[in-house]
């Protein structure tokens, strides 16, 4: 690490702490040449291998932009999109892999998007999974219906039904 003041090629770490988000390490360093202190922030690089073979850094903003297109005209807030982007990044970092395929990124997006908005999920899945026929959409809708019907109802709904029956 070069000193930003005198450009000396070495520095000594005085203190290390994780930053607020937990994905960054903040280090206080001191230059042995000029004795001045400075701070560095270190993050682990998360790289995405695209279908073409090109590797590029992961971008949460790119995830949000893609999901925003799927959410056009839907009642989805910017805060919800930001939270989805954070959840996707956390899920990808939790894999422990420094390089992920674009396919892995798409899979990580589908789960949180499905919870956020089903119509946006279908829009995104139709592009991501390259739907090319009506049958592809029908299969996706049937899958959503079967998982929705299999999910247990919230306790409130059972209480409402019992109240109506009385």
UniProtKB/TrEMBL annotation:
<keyword id="KW-0805">Transcription regulation</keyword>
<feature type="domain" description="ATP-cone">
    <location>
        <begin position="46"/>
        <end position="136"/>
    </location>
</feature>
<keyword id="KW-0678">Repressor</keyword>
<dbReference type="GO" id="GO:0008270">
    <property type="term" value="F:zinc ion binding"/>
</dbReference>
<keyword id="KW-0863">Zinc-finger</keyword>
<keyword id="KW-0238">DNA-binding</keyword>
<keyword id="KW-0067">ATP-binding</keyword>
<dbReference type="InterPro" id="IPR003796">
    <property type="entry name" value="RNR_NrdR-like"/>
</dbReference>
<dbReference type="GO" id="GO:0005524">
    <property type="term" value="F:ATP binding"/>
</dbReference>
<dbReference type="GO" id="GO:0003677">
    <property type="term" value="F:DNA binding"/>
</dbReference>
<keyword id="KW-0547">Nucleotide-binding</keyword>
<dbReference type="Pfam" id="PF22811">
    <property type="entry name" value="Zn_ribbon_NrdR"/>
</dbReference>
<feature type="zinc finger region">
    <location>
        <begin position="3"/>
        <end position="34"/>
    </location>
</feature>
<keyword id="KW-0479">Metal-binding</keyword>
<dbReference type="Pfam" id="PF03477">
    <property type="entry name" value="ATP-cone"/>
</dbReference>
<comment type="function">
    <text>Negatively regulates transcription of bacterial ribonucleotide reductase nrd genes and operons by binding to NrdR-boxes.</text>
</comment>
<dbReference type="InterPro" id="IPR055173">
    <property type="entry name" value="NrdR-like_N"/>
</dbReference>
<keyword id="KW-0804">Transcription</keyword>
<dbReference type="InterPro" id="IPR005144">
    <property type="entry name" value="ATP-cone_dom"/>
</dbReference>
<protein>
    <recommendedName>
        <fullName>Transcriptional repressor NrdR</fullName>
    </recommendedName>
</protein>
<dbReference type="GO" id="GO:0045892">
    <property type="term" value="P:negative regulation of DNA-templated transcription"/>
</dbReference>
<comment type="similarity">
    <text>Belongs to the NrdR family.</text>
</comment>
<keyword id="KW-0862">Zinc</keyword>
């Amino acid at each position: 690490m070069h000193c930003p003041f005198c450009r000396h090629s070495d520095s000594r770490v005085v203190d290390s702490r994780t930053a607020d988000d937990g994905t960054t390490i903040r280090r206080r360093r001191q230059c042995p040449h000029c004795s001045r202190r400075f701070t560095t922030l270190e993050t682990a690089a998360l790289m995405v291998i695209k279908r073409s073979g090109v590797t590029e850094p992961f971008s949460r903003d790119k995830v949000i932009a893609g999901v925003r297109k799927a959410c056009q005209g839907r009642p989805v807030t910017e805060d919800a999109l930001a939270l989805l982007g954070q959840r996707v990044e956390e899920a990808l970092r939790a894999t422990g892999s420094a390089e992920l395929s674009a396919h892995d990124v798409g899979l990580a997006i589908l789960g949180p998007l499905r919870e956020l908005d089903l119509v946006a999920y279908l829009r995104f899945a139709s592009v991501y999974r390259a739907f090319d026929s009506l049958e592809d959409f029908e299969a996706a809708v049937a899958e959503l219906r079967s998982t929705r019907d299999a999910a247990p109802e919230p306790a409130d709904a059972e209480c409402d039904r019992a109240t109506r029956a009385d």
